[in-house]
Design a protein that fits this description.
Blueprint: E1 10-20, E2 27-32, E3 35-41, H1 43-48, E4 57-75, E5 77-81, E6 90-92, E7 95-106, E8 109-110, E9 113-115, E10 126-127, E11 133-135, E12 143-157, H2 159-162, E13 168-178
């Protein structure tokens, strides 16, 4: 049963896209789902879903699946392009988005991933703004024909935004691209 909303609420919609970039014509990207709808929420529900101090008002976590298919063996790397809110989050209207990489599979085998800068991703597995992710833990990006990346997207707003006086619509967008 869905809760009834009493008083002001926040409506959240995120448009995600995949776009081939510099990958050549031998690769294609598929993103499922292409649009994330975080629904309608109120302050009490946001605070109940908060995951730590950074996510004062969380709309929860939604799964996203990025698949890259190439007809030729290709070094596998990708990024999410959207304005940065801070070093770990992307801007999302008056809120933020956090992207966590849950699983990466290259040609059916589980692989680790790392940032282009060579930094480890740590236990949080956060894909940061401006960061290019590489399949494979050491050296250059691992090559393959098919890459599958499972991500979690968490949208959140600061406490001040959660105190809406009327229905407030939050929208944002970004795109995944292969490099």
């Amino acid at each position: 049963m869905k809760p009834y909303l009493i008083g002001p609420a926040l409506l959240v919609l995120l448009n995600l896209m995949s776009a081939p970039a510099q990958a050549g014509e031998h690769c294609s990207l598929n993103l499922t789902p292409g649009v994330l709808d975080f629904g309608v929420s109120n302050r009490a529900a946001l605070l109940a879903q908060a995951h730590g101090a950074a996510a004062a008002g969380s709309f929860g976590v939604r799964p996203v699946f990025l698949r890259i298919y190439c007809t030729q063996s290709t070094p596998m790397s990708w990024r999410f392009v959207a304005p940065a809110a801070d070093a770990q989050r992307f801007r999302f209207g008056s809120g933020t988005l956090l992207l966590r990489v849950k699983n990466v599979r290259l040609d059916g085998a589980a692989v680790r991933w790392r940032s282009e800068a060579g930094e480890g991703v740590g236990e949080a597995n956060i894909l940061r703004p401006g960061e290019r992710a590489l399949a494979g833990a050491d050296g250059a990006a691992a090559q393959g024909h098919q890459l599958e990346v499972e991500l979690e997207v968490e949208a959140s707003v600061p406490d001040s935004v959660s105190r809406a006086r009327d229905l407030t619509r939050l929208e944002g967008g970004g795109r995944f691209q292969m490099n």
